[in-house]
Amino acid sequence: MAPRAVIAEDEPTLAEQLRELLRQVWPELDVCAVAPDGIRALQAMEAHQPDVLFLDIEMPGASGLDVAKLSAGRCHVVFVTAFNQYAVDAFETGAIDYLMKPINAARLFNTVKRVQERLHKGPATPAVSTERSAASDSERQYLRWINASRGQDICIVTTDEVCYFKAEDKYTVVVTEKQEALIRKPIKDLVAQLDPAVFWQIHRSTVVNANAIAAVTRDFRGHFVVKLKQRPEVLSVAESYNHLFRQ
């Protein structure tokens, strides 16, 4: 069966634009309903049992955050909004991504790839921050998204978009496939919040996403260097981290 989606957006023009962009980047997707408010989004979810919800946040009836909480564990959620102040709450509902309007096809394509990768898994349930069971207390919660600065703009970067982090004075630069942004936190503090199974420190000033590594080779001095899948630069590996690649 083709994957199914419901769009919840109270602006008809924006809803149609999103539907058209989805048609371009994910032609197999069946957009089975477009809901103009939160209540009808919940009704559409009950009627169509979609695989993914594309939710605006500020809607009449029930907000996108309310809809996401009520749909937890039943379908995947992507937020599409003009407001960046809801990012923390959005990801705590278990959302896959948080898209800022206006949406462009390239950014939506990355979101679609992320959704497609997770369709075979069960939808996420909301993160619980204050009332955790003893079992969940023992499970480490790693960063899933980052607030970063690019010029005068604040951008939301999910950790699976990151190719690598590099230290810059007291700050850290986050590098994705197509852009760089600044995190107002030193890299040594950031490392403690990242999943060590995914993010490998290869130098005191560099942390690389293992999934972004294309190859590891040696330079003319015999030192390890990392080549990336989506970036042209190579990253030096300090000798104290060579053990990561000796297998």
Describe this structure in words.
The chain is α/β, with parallel strands linked by helices and 247 residues long. It folds into two domains: 115 residues, Rossmann fold; 101 residues, OB fold (Dihydrolipoamide Acetyltransferase, E2P), CATH 2.40.50.1020. It contains seven helices and 15 strands. The strands form four sheets. Strands 2-1-3-4-5 form a five-stranded parallel beta sheet, with helices on both faces. It has a five-stranded antiparallel beta sheet with strand order 10-9-8-12-11. A three-stranded antiparallel beta sheet has the order 13-14-15, with no helix packed on it. Helix 1 crosses helix 5 and helix 2 runs parallel beside helix 3. The relative contact order is 0.09. About 5% of the residues have low confidence.
Question: Which secondary structure elements does this structure contain, and how are they paired or packed?
Answer:
Blueprint (H helix, E strand, L loop, with lengths): L3 E5 L3 H14 L4 E6 L2 H11 L3 E4 L8 H7 L5 E6 L5 H6 L4 E4 L4 H14 L15 H4 L7 E6 L2 E6 L3 E7 L2 E6 L3 E4 L3 H5 L7 E5 L2 E4 L3 E6 L5 E5 L5 E3 L11
Parallel strand pairs: 1-2, 1-3, 3-4, 4-5
Antiparallel strand pairs: 6-7, 8-9, 8-12, 9-10, 11-12, 13-14, 14-15
Helix pairs in contact: 1-5, 2-3
